[in-house]
Amino acid sequence: MVKKKREKVSKFVYWTPRILSMAFIVFLSLFSLDILGNGYNFWQTIGGLFMHNIPSLILICVLIISWRYEIVGGIVFIFVGAFYFFLILIHILRSSPNELYQLFWTLLISGPAILIGVLFLINWLKRKN
Q1: Mean pLDDT of 81-96
Q2: How far apart are CA 50 and CA 20, in angstroms?
Q3: CA distances from 115 to 5, 55, 64 (A)
Q4: Under 8 Å between Cβ of 19 and 67
Q5: d(CA 36, CA 49)
Q6: How far is CA 14 from the centre of its chain?
Q7: Residues 46-65: what's their mean pLDDT?
Q8: DSSP code string of the chain
Q9: Which one, 39, 84, 100, 105, has the greatest CB density within 10 A?
Q10: Angle ∠(18,120,75) on CA atoms, nearest 5
Q11: pTM (2 d.p.)
Q12: What is the mean pLDDT of the chain?
């Protein structure tokens, strides 16, 4: 009974960061669709889509590496989330410190990235033990 429960937890800990990171990458990729309908020709649209999706492409590479080496995903996803949060925080404080409410929507991007990184680290620690 205990072994079955432990096996279910292990599968949950294994698959959750991987599935969440795929969903997160798709979510980030949706932001690139704002390039469509702006009157650009075909090649300008392709170039714009590529430029907007560079972060998603990097995270896909990180996910592929993290599938085997969870510590890479843990460190990179936490770094990406924290970096984005502090980048926006610095921008807000320099330009309009009265608009700290913008940090809320920043958490919608940085929060899931940090959560995914923590889940990868938990998976790495469980595997290490």
Answers
A1: 89
A2: 23
A3: 23, 18, 18
A4: no
A5: 9
A6: 17
A7: 94
A8: -HHHHHHHHHHHHHHHHHHHHHHHHHHHHHGGGGGTTSS--HHHHHHHHHHHTHHHHHHHHHHHHHTT-HHHHHHHHHHHHHHHHHHHHHHHHHH-TT-TTHHHHHHHHHHHHHHHHHHHHHHHHHHH-
A9: 84
A10: 120
A11: 0.85
A12: 88
Q: Per the structure block, which two tokens stand in for 86?
A: 């502090």
Examine the pLDDT at 101 and tell me if it is beyond 80.
no
Hunting for tokens 């972060």 — which residue is that? 55
Task: Give the total residue count for the chain.
Answer: 129
CB-CB neighbours of 5 under 10 Å: 9
Assigned token pair, 104: 């809320």
Of 37-41, 55-59, 91-95, 104-108, which has the strongest mean pLDDT? 55-59
Locate 59 and state its tokens: 């995270």
